[in-house]
């Protein structure tokens, strides 16, 4: 009988192929001895991580349901202000346990710490087994049936898996280093192991049933856009957004009210206004925040859009919007300059006027894209000058039809520079959106398309912000023209106009 062969992969394409191959699964757990709920072996044999086939799908659904109960922003809130004197692993588990409303988060963290090393294959001894039994008793007292025990096992597994990987991310992302940079340059999970559940072929290599596959994520990740640390479908980490929010909270990085809207586990619909009245009317309708449309600002002044002609008008509009009781983000084209210091100065002016966010685009008026390094320098300069301003880094690869295949690479550079979110107008196909969200660390913003997916479906695909761009402004112009024409031609008027008093009431009343 032949012995299993060990295959080592260190190139990005082959590692990604191995992670995506359903035949390659984590090393199977050892057979369980003893009663259920009382050992590390039972835990490993009951969680999604070490399962395959139907058992994996069923257990993964349990984890997804657990995570669906809370938004990443809630995880960030629970982790913020944590006691920094304890070790990162304890802080990670305590923060996640608190967010999930588990009893005695401090005790849960202590017990998970005793289980973690044994869970990942090291010898934890009887102490680790006793810690598992205590966790089961604490999190599911009195539960003895198989279904209930499987559910609590996957709750514990969620905590254990967060323990090491998220703690490593927290340690590596200190001193203000963006987590996106860490995940691509120094991934916290550097090696993964898989076992072939059946014969398969990966990157031209024949892998027999039982063979071991060692994946060097650290070597494979260098210079590539999509982070490998969260795996790939069908076994991609379901808690990716929660882990990132947890790390940011533990690092003491505040999440502004505007940023929080991007971490609710669904898509934020951001309508775009062009003056105070339109912004105030949208806010009165219940929209949690508004953006501005550069086309509306420019056209209202008789100027071209995208030609860096409305810098002062944009600042003045921000000053007017800042008088209102609503959150708003400003479309600032490319920052109205190719000097990062000047863009940072503009960003500070907008922030001081009341803006919660800024859009910076890499498309130029001549139909070309700005050098990626230049746009990244603008982003970094803004984040250094105004850390509390949400920077939405836009790439126009799809909008201008210039090398859409380079979109993920450009966005990865912008994320490394510190972008809080990224925007890809013109991207509307479902497969492209799903592929891009898998490659990103920060929230994805797309432009609404009447021919594309609706808001709920975009949220399910991983989109976290949907802008309306100039649509409302163009609709308003069309409505004004059609109403005037109908009156002139004796036709019916559509009606539905806001009463004079309602429009008058939108003004903040401070002169």
Structure explained in plain terms:
The protein is α/β, with parallel strands linked by helices. Helix content is 47%, strand content 12%. A 9-stranded parallel β-sheet has the order 7-15-14-13-12-11-10-9-8. Strand 4 (200-202) and strand 5 form a beta hairpin. Helix 6 (105-119) packs across helix 8 and helix 17 (372-385) packs parallel to helix 18 (407-416).
What key phrases describe this protein's structure?
single chain, 511 residues, alpha/beta, Cytochrome p450, TIM Barrel, 2 domains, 9-stranded parallel beta sheet, 4-stranded mixed beta sheet, 22 helices, elongated
What order do the strands of the largest sheet run in, or round the barrel if closed?
Answer: 7-15-14-13-12-11-10-9-8
How much is the radius of gyration in Å?
Answer: 26 Å
Number of separate domains: 2
User: Per CATH, what is the topology of the largest domain?
Assistant: Cytochrome p450
Low-confidence stretches: none
CATH superfamily of the largest domain: Cytochrome P450
Continuous helix count: 22
In the CATH classification, which architecture of the largest domain applies?
Answer: Orthogonal Bundle
In the CATH scheme, the class of the largest domain would be Mainly Alpha
Overall number of strands: 15
Mean pLDDT: 92
User: What percentage of the residues does DSSP assign to strands (E)?
Assistant: 5-15%
Terminal CA distance reads: 88 Å
The main pleated sheet reads as: 9 strands, parallel
Subunit arrangement of the protein: single chain
**Helix fraction by DSSP (H/I, runs of at least 4):** 40-55%
What overall geometry do the principal axes of the alpha carbons give?
Answer: elongated
Question: Structural class given helices, strands, pairing?
Answer: alpha/beta
């Amino acid at each position: 009988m032949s012995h299993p062969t060990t295959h080592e992969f260190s190139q990005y394409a082959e590692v990604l192929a191995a992670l995506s191959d359903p035949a390659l699964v984590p090393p199977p757990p050892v057979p369980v001895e003893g009663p259920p709920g009382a050992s590390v072996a039972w835990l490993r044999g009951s969680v999604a991580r070490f399962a395959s086939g139907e058992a994996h799908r069923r257990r993964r659904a349990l984890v997804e349901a657990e995570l669906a109960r809370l938004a990443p922003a809630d995880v960030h809130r629970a982790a913020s202000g944590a006691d920094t004197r304890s070790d990162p692993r304890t802080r990670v588990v305590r923060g996640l346990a608190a967010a999930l409303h588990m009893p005695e988060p401090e005790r849960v963290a202590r017990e998970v710490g005793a289980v973690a090393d044994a869970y990942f294959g090291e010898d934890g001894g009887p102490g680790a087994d006793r810690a598992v039994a205590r966790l089961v008793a604490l999190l599911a007292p009195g539960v003895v049936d198989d279904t209930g025990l499987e559910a609590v096992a996957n709750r514990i597994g969620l905590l254990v898996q967060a323990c090491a990987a998220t703690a490593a991310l927290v340690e590596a992302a200190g001193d203000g280093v963006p987590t996106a940079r860490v995940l691509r340059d120094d991934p916290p999970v550097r090696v993964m192991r898989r076992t072939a559940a059946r014969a398969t072929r990966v990157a031209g290599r024949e892998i027999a049933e039982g063979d071991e596959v060692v994946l060097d994520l650290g070597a494979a990740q260098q210079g590539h856009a999509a982070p490998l640390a969260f795996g790939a479908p069908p076994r991609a980490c379901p808690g990716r957004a929660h882990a990132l929010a947890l790390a940011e909270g533990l690092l003491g990085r505040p999440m502004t009210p505007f940023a929080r809207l991007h971490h609710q586990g669904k898509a934020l619909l951001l309508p775009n206004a062009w003056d105070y009245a339109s912004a105030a009317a949208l806010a009165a309708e219940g929209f949690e925040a508004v953006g501005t449309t550069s086309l509306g600002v420019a056209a209202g002044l008789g100027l071209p859009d995208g030609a860096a002609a409305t810098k002062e008008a944009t600042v003045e509009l921000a000053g007017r919007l800042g008088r209102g009781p609503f959150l708003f983000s400003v479309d600032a084209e490319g920052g109205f300059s190719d000097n990062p210091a000047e863009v940072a100065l503009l960003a500070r002016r907008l922030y001081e006027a009341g803006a919660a966010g800024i859009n910076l685009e890499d498309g130029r008026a001549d139909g070309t894209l700005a050098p990626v390094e230049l746009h990244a320098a603008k982003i970094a300069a803004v984040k250094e000058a105004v850390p509390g301003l949400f920077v939405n880094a836009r790439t126009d690869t799809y909008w201008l039809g210039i090398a859409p295949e380079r979109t993920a690479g450009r966005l990865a550079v912008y994320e490394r520079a510190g972008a809080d979110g990224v925007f890809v107008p013109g991207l509307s196909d479902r497969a492209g959106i799903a592929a891009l969200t898998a490659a990103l660390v920060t929230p994805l913003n797309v432009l609404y398309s009447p021919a594309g997916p609706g808001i709920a479906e975009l949220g399910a695909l991983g989109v976290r912000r949907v802008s309306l761009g100039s649509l409302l402004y163009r609709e308003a112009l069309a409505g004004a023209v059609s109403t005037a024409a109908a009156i002139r031609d004796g036709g019916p008027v559509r009606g539905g106009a806001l009463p004079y008093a309602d429009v008058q009431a939108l003004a903040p009343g401070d002169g």
